[in-house]
Amino acid sequence: MKLTVQVRLVPDAVQASALERTLPAVNDAATWVSTVSFDRFGLKGSVRELRKLCYGELKAQGFGAQAAQHILKRVADAYTTLRANIRGGNLGPPTSQRRRRAESKPIAFRPHAAHTFDDRCLSWNHDAQTVSIWTLDGRIKNLRFACSPGALKQLAEHRKGESDLVFRNGKWFLIATIEVPEPEVFEPRDWVGVDRGIVNLATTSDGHNHQGRRLGRYRRWQARKRAELQAKRTRSAAQLLKKRAKREARHAAHVNHKVSKTVVAVAQRTGRGIALEELQGIRDRVTVSRDQRARLSSWPFHQLGAFIAYKAKRAGVPYLEVNPAYTSQMCPVPWCGHTARNNRPTRDTFRCRRCGFAGPADVVAGINVRDRARSAWVFVNRPDPAPV
Ligand SMILES: [Zn+2]
After folding, report:
1. Which is more confident, 22 or 325?
2. 266-275: string of b/e by CB count within 10 Å (b at 16+)?
């Protein structure tokens, strides 16, 4: 499977100024190529056609053959992605403002957008912990990088293909692609069922909760600030809003990483697989107040699931998604199984109307997910019936 490893570059003053000159110049050039492409071909420029039109000029600006080729490819790829997004409806219907805006002007590249380097423009010396990289000031050699011993080992053993040069918060990074063999999925002894929910982001069938109160407070605070800013309707307020939205997304990703890491570690340690509900059900299975609904739709549950799936795969932990229907209304007692809306007297509690079994609603949902995974796994792995 493909993974990425990030290292921080530690350039000296001369190296830093070469990098600082190069990245914006590359992006400037990409924006120029993009304009040419848009004027001639709309959203349909190809590398071959763009090379005819732009290669000479790029060379004249000091880009080497490889660097020029990368710029052309990056522009063509950007339009391919845009076309796919339009086709897939990701920018809305043909009349939507977003889509019309995207179709009406060339793609522009931010001055510090990441740029891709392949092995001809970038080479790694793992022992010395340095790279040599192409820049507009010529090739920089002995550019030091810092990373953990684990990351260094992975780089040395598995790095393959392209790396991205990234400038973030005043620091330079390389994000390298590594290709590691996929670990074999072990035969699970049992399953951990995970319920993703509003009060607790993730609750396992073991009864463990992940996050909750403090996070809710954080998000309510963010929502209040957002409302204040929205009320202002000024340009600077809009910019602040955008910044805040980015910070929120980063925070959510951080929390999702932490939660998924813990869930996968527990499963791995106990030799169990992980089961999640398929997501489409999560929005309509409970009625919630307006405040709660805002929190539900704003939390990236899908991301949490994707992180768990990915980390499970990386660790060889079996992963299953099960049908989410009624997981929060069904009694988990094997001989009962009574399913009814009024098994949930309140949002947080479960009490079976038939057998009286009671417990926290999210733990019950987690147990139901686990039980569905148990039967699904048996079904998947049942040997084929002998031919008659
Ligand atoms: Zn029951």
Report:
1. 22
2. bbbeeebbbb
For residue 193, the CA-to-ligand 1 centroid distance in Å is 19
CB atoms within 10 A of CB 309: 18
Q: How many angstroms is it from 365 CA to the middle of ligand 1?
A: 13
351-366: pLDDT as tens digits: 999 999 999 999 999 9
Global pTM reads 0.70
CA of 357 to the centre of ligand 1 (A): 5
| Helix, strand, coil % in the chain, rounded to nearest 5 | 50, 20, 30
Can you tell me the distance from the alpha carbon of 265 to that of 223, in angstroms, rounded to the nearest whole number? 32
**CA separation, residue 169 to residues 6, 81, 110, 166, 275 (Å):** 15, 27, 15, 10, 38
Which part of the chain has CATH 3.30.420? 190-212+252-381
Q: In this structure, are strands 138-146 and 2-10 parallel, antiparallel, or unpaired?
A: antiparallel
Given the DSSP bridges, would you call strands 272-277 and 190-196 parallel, antiparallel or unpaired?
Answer: parallel
Predicted local distance difference test score (pLDDT) of residue 287? 47
DSSP structure class, residue 119: T
CA of 262 to the centre of ligand 1 (A): 31
Domain 190-212+252-381 belongs to what topology? Nucleotidyltransferase; domain 5 (3.30.420)
Per-residue model confidence (pLDDT) at position 201 = 85
Q: What is the pLDDT of residues 165-206, one digit of tens each?
A: 999 989 999 999 999 888 899 999 999 999 988 667 899 999
CA of 340 to the centre of ligand 1 (A): 10
CA of 337 to the centre of ligand 1 (A): 6
Q: Ligand 1 mean position to 305 CA, how many Å? A: 29
Q: Distance, CA 352 to ligand 1 centroid (Å)?
A: 5
Three-class DSSP category at 321: strand
Other beta carbons within 10 Å of 304: 25
Question: Could you tell me the distance, in angstroms and rounded to a whole number, from the CA of residue 347 to the centre of ligand 1?
Answer: 18
CA of 8 to the centre of ligand 1 (A): 56
Query: From CA 305, how far away is CA 310, in angstroms rounded?
Result: 9
How close is the Cα of 274 to the center of ligand 1, in Å? 25
